[in-house]
């Protein structure tokens, strides 16, 4: 299996979303912020355990990367990881050019790609065969790679945490989420703001 910087869409391993999310969180040791997109992406983040620096999107499709970008710009000393699904990113592809233009060194985008809108009935996305890494590079994010497998994703994330902006794409399976996020927007917001140190 080739490493992520050489892996194409067709030869990246299909990984389990919850397990991959768990591995990503295990790499975070400096109170990095994590912004997770709607649906199963944030459900599995929630299932990994409470963490004040996590933000869980509810009903705002496509905004994980823009919100993560805003946090990264507001707190340049804190690394920010956006966990986004392929269907959601399709709604805001323009955000990739904004990320590339502003170039925040403390932002990493992790795309969870299973080619479907899983939360609404597993309909195929319009770009089910698209190469999102090629799209990210075309948008101007030079550090964009497919994760060949779990270990390669960890390697790519370690490099990204040392400086970005970075885009890591992972092919994931269609297993259901392990748990469901609490649906209390006010509590999610307040906990996240306290986790970022902007609210006591």
Structure, described:
- It is a single chain.
- With 200 residues, the chain is α/β, with parallel strands linked by helices.
- The chain has a single domain (9-195), classed as Thiamin diphosphate (ThDP)-binding fold, Pyr/PP domains (Rossmann fold).
- It contains eight helices and eight strands.
- The chain has helices spanning 17-26, 40-47, 64-74, 86-91, 94-102, 132-139, 150-161, 185-195, and strands spanning 33-36, 54-56, 80-85, 107-113, 116-117, 123-124, 144-146, 166-171.
- α1 crosses α2 (40-47).
- The radius of gyration is 15 Å and the shape is globular.
- The chain starts with 16 loop residues before the first helix and ends in a 5-residue tail after the last helix.
- Residues 1-7 have low confidence and may be disordered.
Question: Helix and strand layout, with pairings?
Answer:
Elements: H1 17-26, E1 33-36, H2 40-47, E2 54-56, H3 64-74, E3 80-85, H4 86-91, H5 94-102, E4 107-113, E5 116-117, E6 123-124, H6 132-139, E7 144-146, H7 150-161, E8 166-171, H8 185-195
Helix pairs in contact: 1-2
């Amino acid at each position: 299996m080739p490493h992520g910087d050489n892996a194409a869409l067709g030869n990246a391993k299909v990984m389990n979303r919850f397990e991959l999310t768990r591995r990503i969180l295990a790499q975070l040791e400096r109170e990095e912020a994590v912004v997770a997109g709607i649906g199963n992406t944030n459900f599995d983040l929630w299932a990994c355990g409470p963490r004040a620096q996590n933000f869980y999107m509810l009903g705002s499709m496509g905004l994980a990367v823009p919100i993560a970008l805003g946090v990264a710009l507001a707190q340049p000393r804190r690394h920010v990881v956006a966990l986004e699904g392929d269907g959601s990113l399709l709604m805001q592809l323009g955000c990739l050019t904004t990320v590339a233009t502003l170039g925040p060194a403390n932002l990493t985008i992790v795309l969870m790609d299973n080619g479907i809108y899983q939360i609404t009935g597993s309909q195929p996305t319009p770009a089910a065969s698209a190469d999102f890494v090629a799209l990210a590079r075309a948008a101007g994010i030079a550090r964009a790679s497919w994760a060949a497998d779990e270990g390669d994703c960890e390697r790519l994330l370690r490099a990204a945490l040392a400086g970005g902006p970075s885009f890591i794409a992972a092919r994931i399976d269609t297993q259901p989420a392990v748990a469901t996020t609490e649906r209390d927007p006010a509590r999610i917001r307040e906990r996240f703001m306290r986790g970022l140190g902007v609210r006591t």
